[in-house]
Amino acid sequence: MGNAAGGTTEAAHGYAAAHYIGGGTGGHRGRYRMGVVRDGIDPGAVALDLAQSIFRRAGYSGRMIEEFQLARRLGPGLLTLYGVGTTIGAGIYVLIGEVAARAGVWTPVSFLLAAVLAGATALSFTELSARMPKSAGEALYIREAFAAEWLSLLVGLLVAAAGIISAASVVVGGVGYLRTLIDVPQALAMIVLCLALGGLAVWGIAESTLAAAALTLVEIGGLGLVIATGVGSGGAGGLPVAEILFPSAPFPLVGVFAGAVLAFYAFIGFEDIVNVAEEVTEPAKTMPIAIVATLVIAGGLYLAVSVTALAVLPMVELAGAEAPLALVYAAGGGDPRLLGAIAVLATVNGVLVQMVMASRVLFGLSRQGSLPAFLGRVSPATRTPVVATVLVVVAILALALLFPIATLAGATSLITLAVFTLCNLALWRLKRRGPTPPEAPNLPIWLPVTGAVVSFAVLVIEIVRRIAVSL
Questions:
Q1: What is the mean pLDDT of residues 199-212?
Q2: What HEC string does the chain produce?
Q3: Exposed/middle/buried for residue 229 (C-beta within 10 Å: 0-12, 13-18, 19+)
Q4: Cα separation of 385 and 356, whole Å?
Q5: CB-based burial, 81-104: b 16+ in 10 Å, e otherwise
Q6: pLDDT digits (tens, 9 = 90+) for 161-189
Q7: 298 and 219 in contact (C-beta within 8 Å)?
Q8: Beta strand pairing status for 31-33 and 19-21?
Q9: Distance CA 351, CA 90 (A)
Q10: Are 60 and 374 spatial neighbours (Cβ–Cβ below 8 Å)?
Q11: Can you say how many angstroms the Cα of residue 398 is from the centroid of all Cα atoms in its chain?
């Protein structure tokens, strides 16, 4: 399938390692040039050319990569489960209490509002991913919209770094909980976990995604247990369901919006879908379906869980709980350790998905000519980027074993919000430049503007909150 952004058919074996300019959405053939941007000089591109010349002197080829391509084996079902798995995670098991502390009985409204706010960016990603179904999607969107190689490379590296740091953080947390159940050396558990998941990621995209899909179904099953337990207990300890669905209490505007900002983070994850675009069948059709389905499924689960939690637990207990869903499950006679085990599986899923995502970003950046060619090589046996995956696994393991990563992990959400803002602006600029390709959804131009404003606002709020906490 041709690159929708450039209106051209791509070379059969990847990108040229040169600066790609033009194409846009107007149907004109793109041009490969080194460093020159239309009527002027792009300093970032010049700097990148220098870096690429260094890579070549070190033995890394800057020519077009004539190698095997990634295998297209992901359809709408598997891709949606991949997206749901990276979105719901283990965070919802804690987040529901924090949102309830701010929004009270209006907690479901906070989650609904967060879904709408995140939905603007999610829809922007549907059009972008259909226009340019390539690995390292966020970097490519920036490159096409702003013709800034340095910014494209920076965004790509930040996305990969965020995935690696997030995975390392999850490894530490998951192993820490595992050691409360099983007496095992921490370092050994981390090494075994990372190597096992890394081997699965190298094995094949279908195999790793099937494993992630199975773990996702377990996560969904865990939330289903919470909902079923709440229904079975009759909601005696909390609010009447009618009061939750149609609150009579005054609408706390500030509290609901504060809760929505928190709940917004529960919807982050759909963006990882774009980085496996080269392994998706009919990506221009499948990617938008999977992104929207991910948001709808996650939103539906969050709404059901929030209603259940409010119905089962008294507000004071719910708002102050460190593990509110475990309390909901226990209130119905369930063993909270089962939810704890499911949360561990959710962390394992998170690590696997981030390994896949980060390796595809490095692969995509290599195929775009921004990183050394060896990172873009695909194994003919597994049809996966083995070198990039091994590098990601080593980085995750090193961070988990050797570095205090709590502070770094806190920065990943800021990176994601900044990338959301830039990608929305990229779509806005592309739509102003020319018509939308026929294979991509044609969204109204105000939608990416809305997504950019929302993402930037949440970013500013989070930065201000962190500064206030540190004072």
A1: 92
A2: CCECCCCECCCCCCCCCCEEECCCCCCCCCEEECCEECCEECHHHHHHHHHHHHHHHCCCCCCCCCCCCCCCCECHHHHHHHHHHHHHCCCHHHHHHHHHHHHHHHHHHHHHHHHHHHHHHHHHHHHHHHHCCCCCHHHHHHHHHHCCHHHHHHHHHHHHHHHHHHHHHHHHHHHHHHHHHCCCCHHHHHHHHHHHHHHHHHHCHHHHHHHHHHHHHHHHHHHHHHHHHHHHHCCCCCCCHHHHHCCCCCCCHHHHHHHHHHHHHHHCCHHHHHHHHHHECCHHHHHHHHHHHHHHHHHHHHHHHHHHHHHHCCHHHHHHCCCHHHHHHHHCCCCHHHHHHHHHHHHHHHHHHHHHHHHHHHHHHHHCCCCCHHHHCCCCCCCCCHHHHHHHHHHHHHHHHHCCCHHHHHHHHHHHHHHHHHHHHHHHHHHHHCCCCCCCCCCCCHHHHHHHHHHHHHHHHHHHHHHHHHC
A3: buried
A4: 10
A5: bbbbbbbbbbbbbebbbbbbbbbb
A6: 999 998 998 888 778 777 777 888 989 99
A7: no
A8: antiparallel
A9: 12
A10: yes
A11: 22
How many whole angstroms separate alpha carbon 183 and alpha carbon 429?
55
Q: What is the mean pLDDT of the chain?
A: 83
Q: So where are the chain's domains? A: 72-470
CA-wise closest residue to 263 among 419, 122, 121, 98? 98
Identity of the amino acid at 7: G
For the structural domain made of 72-470, what CATH number should be given?
Answer: 1.20.1740.10
- CA dist 360 and 383 (Å) reads 12
Q: What are the tens digits of pLDDT across the range 53-68?
A: 554 444 444 444 446 8
Per-residue confidence (pLDDT) for residue 62, from 0 to 100: 42
Buried b (16+ CB within 10 A) or exposed e, 290-325: bbbbbbebbbebbbbbbbbbbbbbebebbbebebbb
Compute the distance between CA of residue 362 and CA of residue 423 in angstroms, rounded to an integer.
Answer: 18
The two three-digit tokens of residue 236, written as one number: 């005696």
